[in-house]
Specification:
By secondary structure, the chain is an alpha/beta fold. The chain has 2 domains: about 170 residues, Rossmann fold (3-Layer(aba) Sandwich), CATH 3.40.50; about 210 residues, 3-Layer(aba) Sandwich (Rossmann fold). It is about 35% helix and about 25% strand.
């Protein structure tokens, strides 16, 4: 998604500077050309050699190094498509907001006419300082894009707001800004299911699974970035700037999907739906008895994916099933797509501890109706979501026309 883009990263003197090494790798893996400018204090936290090796470009710091008779701050400002300042200290934020250019980074910021993303990181007391907040509001009023810090344990030993935002959020914001004119899913409606359904036994016990909902949520997030009308049907508590529907059981999820089906262009069935539920819910807590065993009578839940595929009377909606397996991954996935009749199936191995349930990373295989298999190597679920949507869109866009 960042192929051919020129990203300039500005690193200031905060402890979170070391985290930016991974952000550089994320940008590079997406095809971007990355250049870096640092304040002198930033090099107290991360070395110049490390940054040069990861970015494959020289790292700039001095204010008046001139190349080809062009001041360096103007050169960097002209070449980059976006300027991402992370971590941004209170000092640097305040300088930029008040027009102070006493180092190369702040000079570039003042000369930069394209989008600037600022990801602050600092002590919680500094973050809440009214002057810092006023300066941030001033920057936002002039179209600077702020990726706010998060709450957590800080390097100073306290807990509070000021921790650098998750790198995936900074990355996603960069993609969103740079692809603002590439809303390839504009006019499309995408419905995504996420999380593991919960089937109650009694008021205090239930049957469920380990699904975290992260994969489905990442797909919905990226679809929204690409301009789709997005609906996330999830068993998890989430707050998004698009429509979310909170459900609990398989039957509730089926009802929510039925309501969205007729107007959907794509349906991503990434939720882990329980195959069974108890036949009779006990309205009172089930008491322990002298018996060493207990018998629960289970009945099958509806096969939501199968029912949706059977309901299709045209080529839309494009339905993407998901397949979590512990053995014979490809064979089982091929059997499932043929049995269910969906357009694509995404398979992953949940027996691996480094991917799948609860992990922030995944590795999947995408299989289409012709049983062609594409492997997506292990990476973050945000990146996997991009690859899934890209593959599905490229193979189906000719048939998925606007209703």
């Amino acid at each position: 998604m960042l192929s051919g883009k020129n990203i300039l990263i500005g690193i200031t003197g905060g402890i979170a500077a070391y985290k930016i090494c991974e952000l550089i790798r994320m940008y590079k893996k997406s095809g971007a050309n990355v250049k870096i400018v640092v304040t002198p204090n930033a090099l107290n936290f991360v070395t110049k050699l490390t940054l040069q090796t990861l970015s494959q470009n020289n790292v700039a710091m001095e204010q008046f190094e001139i190349t080809d008779y062009k001041p360096e701050h103007i050169s960097y400002a002209d070449e980059a498509d976006i300027f991402v300042i992370a971590p941004a200290t209170a000092n640097t934020i305040s300088k930029i907001a008040n027009g102070i250019a006493d180092n190369l980074l702040t000079s570039i910021a003042l000369a930069f006419k394209k989008p600037i993303v600022i990801a602050p990181a600092m002590n919680c007391n500094m973050w809440s300082n009214p002057f810092v907040q006023e300066n941030l509001k001033k920057l936002e009023s002039h179209s600077y894009i702020i990726v706010p810090p998060e709450s957590g344990f800080l390097a100073c030993g306290t807990t509070g707001e000021g921790r650098l935002a998750e790198l995936s959020k900074i990355y996603d914001k960069t993609v969103e800004v740079l692809n603002n004119n590439k809303k390839i899913l504009s006019g499309k409606k995408i419905v995504v299911t996420a999380g593991g359904t919960v089937e109650d036994i009694d008021p205090v016990r239930f049957i469920s699974n380990y699904s975290s909902g992260k994969m489905g949520t990442a797909i919905a997030d990226y679809a929204n970035q690409l301009g789709a009308e997005t609906v996330l049907i999830t068993t998890k508590d989430v707050q998004k700037n698009y429509k979310t529907v909170k459900v609990k059981s398989a039957l509730e999820m089926q009802t929510a999907l039925t309501e969205e089906f007729d107007t959907a262009d794509y349906i991503f069935m990434s939720a882990a739906v329980a195959d069974f539920r108890v036949k009779e819910f006990n309205p009172q807590k089930t008491k322990k008895t002298a018996e060493d065993t207990i018998t629960l009578e289970l009945v099958k839940n509806p096969d939501i994916l199968q029912n949706l595929c059977n309901k299709k009377i045209s080529e839309t909606p494009v339905i993407i099933g998901f397949c979590a397996e512990t053995e014979n991954l490809i064979e089982n996935a091929k059997t499932k797509i043929q049995k269910k009749g969906c357009d694509f199936i995404v398979a992953n191995d949940v027996s691996r501890k480094d991917i799948g349930f609860s992990s922030d990373e995944n590795e999947v295989y995408i299989i289409d109706k012709n049983l062609e298999v594409k492997k997506i190597e292990k990476q973050s679920k945000a990146k996997i979501a991009e690859e899934i949507i890209k593959e599905v869109y490229e193979k189906s866009r000719n048939i998925c026309t606007h209703k």
